[in-house]
Design goal:
The complex is a heterodimer of chains A (about 60) and B (about 140). Chain A is mainly alpha-helical. Chain A has five helices and two strands, in the order βαααααβ. Chain A has one domain: Orthogonal Bundle (434 Repressor (Amino-terminal Domain)). Chain B has two domains: about 70 residues; about 70 residues, no CATH class. Chain B has about 140 residues and is mainly α. The chains are: A mainly alpha (about 60), B mainly alpha (about 140).
């Protein structure tokens, strides 16, 4: 699964640490999300989308 | 607060283990290879615990959570691998000892092997999955 977290993060000039604090996760989790090495729970995905002022569909690209 | 209490408790336990080890080494007369191996194993496990505690404390000091959903999944997965290793070492330690050293292990030796193998597999899995792994 790919994500556009880095792109949205850059839009608001947020570091991985800033975003991690906003959503209650560790910085490494944000890093793994951006690399596509971790699938978040619905709750975390929702929190990240809310923090980046977007929707889950915009943020996460599901590949079949 | 709960995270910090857990960390301080972990530090207390790690320090207690090291102090006990120090007394053991100091009071031992001639240190044999088995003593060095035992000490090395204990130090390795305590070093791992210290690393985990340091990592959590580092995150707390930055205002981040000590652990999150990904790390919980990593712990579960590492525990699963440690369990599998425990099962295999319980079954295979005696035959392997017979083949390699031509000896038969007693019950307490097998128990020690199972505990050590599962602990090391857990430690290795946790470190790998936390730092580089794919915990999907």
């Amino acid at each position: 699964m790919k994500t556009r977290i880095k792109e949205f993060r850059a839009r608001y000039d947020l570091t991985q640490e800033d975003l991690a604090k906003m959503v209650g996760a560790r910085r490494e989790t944000i890093l793994f999300l951006e690399k596509g090495k971790y699938n978040p729970s619905l709750k975390l995905a929702h929190n990240i989308a809310k923090a980046l002022k977007t929707t889950i569909d915009e943020l996460f690209i599901f590949e079949d | 607060m709960k995270d910090k209490l857990g960390i301080f408790a972990g530090i207390g336990i790690a320090v207690s283990v090291l102090v006990t080890l120090a007394f053991f080494v100091k009071s031992a007369g001639n240190i044999e290879l088995s003593d060095i191996a035992s000490t090395g194993i204990v130090i390795t496990l305590v070093a791992f615990a210290a690393f985990v505690l340091w990592d959590r404390l580092k995150n707390i000091n930055k205002g981040l959570p000590a652990t999150d959903e990904r790390l919980v999944q990593v712990s579960y997965k590492a525990g699963y691998y440690g369990f599998i290793a425990a099962m295999w070492s319980a079954v295979g330690s005696n035959p392997l000892a017979g083949i390699i050293w031509n000896i038969e292990l007693e019950g307490h030796h097998v128990a020690a092997v199972v505990v050590l193998v599962s602990a090391f597999v857990f430690v290795a899995s946790y470190l790998y999955l936390a730092r580089k792994g794919d915990s999907k």
